[in-house]
């Protein structure tokens, strides 16, 4: 069973799709400006009571695509004890919490009750709520089955069932549990199945449990190469909590002439604008909640160089043409590949190369691969500049400004200050102290640059494993198949020192080159090599203190990336 791509969304609005006014209001309050493609395609059939097979990954807006129709249909408070009107099955406890929170957020005004059920929760609280009856249950299959067997959850009155991330549920070995749960629900229920992929096992579940489903697939047609702008595309995988700090660092490194930073919602646009201004940037918001006059003023300021950063939603920035735009930043991965293409098309105009930067949360990685498939272009996943990189960058800038000032030579009136000190201090020390003052002034308010941002390895592309099981036993699997921040499993038991190596990213240096050279030339076990940071023009490597001199001596006679390099203990 193949789902053809669903056509690109029309100019549908949440109102025009026929949602209850209270839901439309909730979405507007959350700052959603228009339905995402999966929502525009899935809402009409689901609101019309049809079954649905949706092929969409996390980040496309699929939660609202099923949560809104579910909330639209449910009559709050009509459940008898131990029953529910709607059941959403999800693979993990994290997703159970997220989906349950989303349903609560969207349905707050309707007074719909929602309960997440997952392993590891205190059962007493679950039992109390179930005893009263709850409008929507969001559960992992293992925990749902537990309650069915105990009789604490009954499915006779269920009118809608959603299987979310069905391929993940099968990968985690929940196939039998799903069958058991579905067989306990009424025949005439409405069913929606969402999956990122459509392997035969999912098709077969859909065949058996969905009744003449409408198929919705987010378009994956290739974008013609000629349509793609000339843009350097880079992505950074960072946990949500570090996104603003990462953005600040990237703006410092990239120094854009002018940039648009895209967010998904009005609320995010407003919050990020406040944060950026608080950190010393000149940023203005642009979204659909502003009057036309306000929007015109902001656009005029950006064009006339009064603003460097525009924080915008897709809707508000549509059709915007600003020739001086050097960068587009996706603060969130856009909900659909088409939106990505539109966004980055704002830069790289008039034959100039533009830069597109995308911040990706670890769980959104699949969305990025999808964009690459659609555009046929690679998005390089880079590492966020480290504290050491930032320090080096700032010193470089400082050196450049001093050089400029020395060449301009307009500092005669200040010679007296230096002369006054020269009888007591060495001129070199006086100059260094002056630079320190400058640097301290520059450093003020740069606290975010002093915190290391964790390096998150992108998760491996998950292959579909027919009949395979992923992770532990049903109901007990907590996390998703992602690798967390790279950390050393245990602290070293030896003293560590840091080496400075005079070649970095510009010379093509990679961590593997350093490990290879240190292990190969100095005979140090690679497991003893600690954190490695690659800056633009230098690298830093942690090694055992007792091996440091031997490594320095060995590397002096060796070549790295084909060149002799300077190696010394780091003095910073
Ligand atoms: P999901 O794919 O359901 O995990 O949603 C991904 C993100 O998109 C969530 O942060 C949602 O809040 C957000 N989102 C969903 N629908 C919309 C929309 N129509 N406009 C803006 N953001 C949305």
Short description:
The protein is α/β, with parallel strands linked by helices and 572 residues long. It contains 20 helices and 18 strands. The strands form 3 sheets. Strands 3-4-2-5-6-1-7 form a 7-stranded parallel β-sheet, sandwiched between helices.
Description:
By secondary structure, the protein is α/β, with parallel strands linked by helices. It folds into four domains: 21-217, 3-Layer(aba) Sandwich (Rossmann fold); 225-386, Rossmann fold, CATH 3.40.50; 388-450, no CATH class; 464-569, RRM (RNA recognition motif) domain (Alpha-Beta Plaits, 2-Layer Sandwich). Helix content is 39%, strand content 15%. The protein has helices at residues 21-30, 37-47, 62-73, 93-107, 123-132, 141-150, 166-171, 175-183, 200-209, 243-254, 266-278, 292-303, 314-317, 337-344, 365-375, 387-408, 415-422, 427-443, 511-522, 548-556; strands at residues 52-55, 84-89, 114-117, 134-139, 160-163, 190-195, 214-217, 231-237, 259-262, 283-286, 309-312, 327-330, 354-360, 380-381, 496-501, 532-534, 539-544, 567-569. Strands 3-4-2-5-6-1-7 form a seven-stranded parallel sheet, with helices on both faces. The protein has a seven-stranded parallel sheet with strand order 10-11-9-12-13-8-14, sandwiched between helices. The radius of gyration is 28 Å and the shape is globular. Mean pLDDT is 84; it is low at 1-9 and 459-491. Residues 32, 35-36, 39, 58-64, 264-265, 335 line the site of adenosine monophosphate (AMP).
């Amino acid at each position: 069973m193949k789902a053809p791509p669903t056509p690109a969304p029309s100019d549908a609005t949440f109102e025009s799709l026929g949602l209850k006014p209270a839901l439309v209001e909730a979405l507007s309050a959350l700052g959603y400006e228009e339905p995402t493609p999966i929502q525009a395609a899935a809402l009409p059939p689901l609101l019309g009571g049809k079954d649905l097979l949706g092929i969409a990954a996390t980040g496309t807006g699929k939660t609202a695509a099923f949560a809104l129709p579910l909330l639209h249909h449910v009559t709050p408070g009509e459940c008898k004890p131990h029953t529910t009107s709607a059941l959403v099955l999800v693979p993990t406890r994290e997703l159970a919490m997220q989906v349950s929170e989303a349903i609560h957020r969207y349905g707050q005004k309707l007074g719909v009750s929602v309960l997440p059920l997952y392993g590891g929760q205190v059962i007493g609280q679950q039992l109390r709520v179930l005893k009263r009856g709850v409008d929507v249950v969001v559960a992992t299959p293992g925990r749902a089955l537990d309650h069915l067997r105990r009789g604490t959850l009954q499915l006779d009155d269920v009118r809608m069932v959603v299987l979310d991330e069905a391929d993940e549920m099968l990968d985690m070995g929940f196939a039998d549990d799903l069958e058991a749960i579905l067989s306990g629900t009424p025949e005439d229920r409405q069913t929606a199945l969402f999956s990122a992929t459509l392997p035969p096992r999912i098709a077969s579940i859909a065949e058996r449990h969905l009744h003449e489903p409408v198929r919705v697939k987010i378009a994956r047609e290739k974008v013609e190469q000629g349509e793609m702008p000339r843009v350097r595309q880079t992505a950074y995988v960072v946990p949500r909590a570090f996104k603003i700090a990462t953005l600040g660092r990237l703006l410092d490194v990239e120094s854009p002439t002018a940039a648009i930073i895209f967010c998904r919602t009005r609320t995010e646009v407003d919050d990020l604008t406040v944060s950026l201004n608080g950190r010393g940037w000149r940023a203005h918001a642009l979204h659909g909640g502003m009057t036309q006059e306000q929007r015109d003023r902001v656009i005029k300021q950006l064009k006339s160089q009064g603003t460097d950063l525009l924080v915008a939603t897709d809707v508000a920035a549509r059709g915007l043409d600003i020739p001086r735009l050097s960068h587009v930043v996706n603060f969130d991965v856009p909900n659909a590949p088409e939106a990505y293409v539109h966004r980055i098309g704002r830069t790289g105009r008039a034959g100039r190369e533009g830069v597109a930067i995308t911040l990706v949360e670890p769980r959104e990685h699949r969305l990025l691969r999808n964009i690459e498939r659609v555009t046929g272009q690679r998005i390089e996943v880079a590492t966020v500049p480290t504290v050491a990189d930032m320090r080096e960058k700032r010193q470089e800038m400082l050196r450049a400004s001093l050089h400029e000032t020395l060449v301009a030579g307009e500092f005669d009136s200040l010679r007296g200050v230096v002369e006054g000190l020269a009888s007591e201090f060495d001129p070199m020390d006086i100059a260094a102290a002056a630079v320190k003052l400058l640097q301290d002034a520059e450093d003020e308010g740069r606290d975010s640059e002093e915190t290391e941002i964790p390096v998150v390895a992108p998760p491996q592309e998950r292959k579909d494993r027919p009949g395979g099981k992923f992770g532990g036993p049903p109901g007990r699997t907590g996390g998703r198949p992602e690798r967390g921040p790279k950390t050393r499993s245990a602290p070293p038991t030896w003293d560590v020192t840091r080496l400075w190596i005079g070649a970095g990213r510009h010379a093509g240096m990679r961590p593997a080159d350093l490990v290879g050279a240190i292990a190969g030339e100095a005979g140090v076990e690679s497991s003893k090599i600690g954190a490695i940071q690659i800056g633009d023009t230098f690298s830093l490597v942690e090694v055992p203190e007792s091996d440091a001199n031997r490594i320095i001596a060995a590397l002096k006679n060796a070549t790295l990336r084909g060149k002799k390099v300077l190696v010394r203990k780091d003095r910073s």
